[in-house]
User: What shape does this take?
Amino acid sequence: MCEDERKKPLPLGQSFFDRVIGDGSYYVDKTLFIKDLLDKNAAVTLCTRPRRFGKTLNQTMLKCFFEDTAPIDAKRGTKKDTRALFNGLKIEAAGERYMEHQGRYPVLFLSFKEAKRATFEDSYRMLKDELVREFNRHDYVVEKISKKQDRGLFERLSSGDGDRNDYSASIKFLCECLENYHGKRVIILIDEYDVPLENSWTRGFYDEMINFIRPLLSSALKDNPHLQLGVITGCLRVSKESIFTGLNHLYMASVLNNGYSEYFGFTQGEVDAMLEYYGLDGKKQIVRDWYNGYLFGNTEVYNPWSCLHVVDSWITYIDTYPKPYWVNTSGNDIIRDIIGKMSADAKAGLETLMAGGTVTAKVNEYVTYGDIYKEVGNIWNFLLFTGYLKKVGDGRVNENGELTLDLSIPNIELKYVFVTKIREWFKDYIKTKDRKALFGAILSGDAETVERELSALLAEYISYMDSAEAHYHGFISGVLTGLDGYMVTSEAESGDGRCDLVLRGVNVRDGIAAIFEFKVAKERKGLQTVCENALRQIEDKKYADKWVDEGYENIIKYGIGFYRKRCKVMKETWLSSQ
Assistant: This one.
């Protein structure tokens, strides 16, 4: 391939703007985000979007655009021309009235993404380390700190020797130091602000974390005379915890707002342009089916993480099948937690979604982690704002001003997480249930108790609202896993065919093997018939012969019929004495 035919590399997993541009990578130009921020002139903007939708890349872009790096460059003995990073980009074309802001401000940049640790102490240490790094990055300001007391505080904070109260007010203090040095107010950029909150909720130290985060952010963003502009990004708005109490100048840009809606995720035009650039025009419909469908305000967008990865896979091999790239990245911990605590109504709603239907919920942007389980609608709220659901059609506002939306699964990739991942998580959840009575009944041949126990577990299990035998096969396989001293064999070849499942003792001398055959009834009254058919199949195809030959002396044959979340169990027993 000649030089001018080479295509730009894709910035896979790269979230630093200067590296994307500096490496000559393909960049979907979002620099007009800068123009809109300057035009709107909100003191503090909170942008909430799902993970992997370009929040960090946009934050590092803002840092590269606004930051006066001269003192930092002088300290390091280097000099960067950050304006050159924006050559040929949309913000440069917008005119000098915007470009005159380039490289003019001190910038404080913090990312809370590393504060995802098992204990509060470890999470707090990661937050403190991030603050320490930012103090050290700006340690040139010390030369203009005149007060001995302030100089001592700066040294403690930059060395990591400050106490928790010192660090809880450290952002505002650093802003003061920066303004005194530069003669300009400070731009604060905070990325992934809610990561420590979500993590602390799932791990049980939420109150401790809130008590540190609240003064840290409120002192930085509320009544801070040294603040020029603040941009905060995360997945959720956390408000009732009073993190932003009294912050009347906060501009909220959530998935429901039109503000900045096209700057997180790829628009249709951006995806079409990327596919055309790489010669993949014929893949447009596949990309649309798999990764489109998110609605931010009135702007339909694609998942950027998955789009980049699938395009990269096609560059390598054109016939690569699309994959669920986004759902296989980290960030599902709280979803797993929600699944384990869902009410019966919520589980029914999940089944409706998995069948291609919609759920209806009152939407509240202010739902907190503690509120998630109080109402079914709060769960749908959470899944909407974290990117697992999308709004369908227009919302309805009642006389109390409450917004109600219909919600659905956006695309094939998200269908995968609902059908595959959530079912997998439910299998794990079922394994935590006490199954002693079920195991005892299976081994003793007590079909009535087996039926009762299986019915109770089915009521808690999420189905895909299909009638496929494979669904019930997977369910029973998961239920039977974990019985000490016994192994489960699926589709075991025996006699004249393959039975669905066999549960047998590891030690043949224990003498027990249970053979299971499953059938699905088309209606509830057909359960008896399909059970009889299942038992007849075990007999006609001689499924027991193999286990008799291997020395099992007590073989129990179970025919199990399913109809939705109902089951019927029948059994026959073969003993060596027969």
